[in-house]
């Protein structure tokens, strides 16, 4: 089940250099093949280059994060041209006008756009532990804590790439439900669609979210806020083969009264093979979807786990 989302309605923020715009300090770009040629077929990008937006030229002198005492600033290596406040203010502005975004891809290691591990230097130019966060990116993430965010470099990892896209589609589904006027029924229905998705990421969260929705003492707005926060936190945990295999085994139980002995054995074999790492996830999922056509189960057909995003992205083919 993919919650139907037209391309023009799925908006993703992105560092402009990642989609080919020559806005870097040396007038170059850092095009991401995945962003441009794969994900780009299904989303509309809103591109930002905070350094250009605050008035820095192309090309321009490099800037870096410099730590003096406990204060981190962004400026040229010699400390001149401090743009820290300008980047912060632009980040706040973009965050306030992009509440319709369902995800964001940042440029790794950038002093303005890096999500993590940004290089920090002492005033004398010595490298300190790379624990910085891009000033612009930090403002976006602080203002939108639920927003799925990733860096271009990390998206080269097939597990992280799949996890990011799945979170984007789940968050967009939530945004649509919320915009339609949230009710307790809509909230519980939404959760029912994501039960097996949550199970494959975090079994503790799976139980906790179910218990949360059973509460009757919370106002709907507070219940919804706690729920979506818990859901997005759970989905940010990259699912393991063991957790996927456990989820697949639970789904298999829905067919226990229908499958012939050889069919049951084949599905068990594929789940075990996936657990052991000899086949990718799409193999047992393909068989489950085949059985679902033969033995329809309405509850399963609505599970986002079985089809969380367009199959054409082939994100479950490599792990």
Automatic annotation (TrEMBL):
Pfam families: 2-thiour_desulf (PF04463), DUF1722 (PF08349). Residues 195-310 form the DUF1722 domain. The lineage of its organism: Bacteria, Pseudomonadati, Pseudomonadota, Gammaproteobacteria, Alteromonadales. This is DUF1722 domain-containing protein. It comes from Colwellia echini. PANTHER family: INNER MEMBRANE PROTEIN.
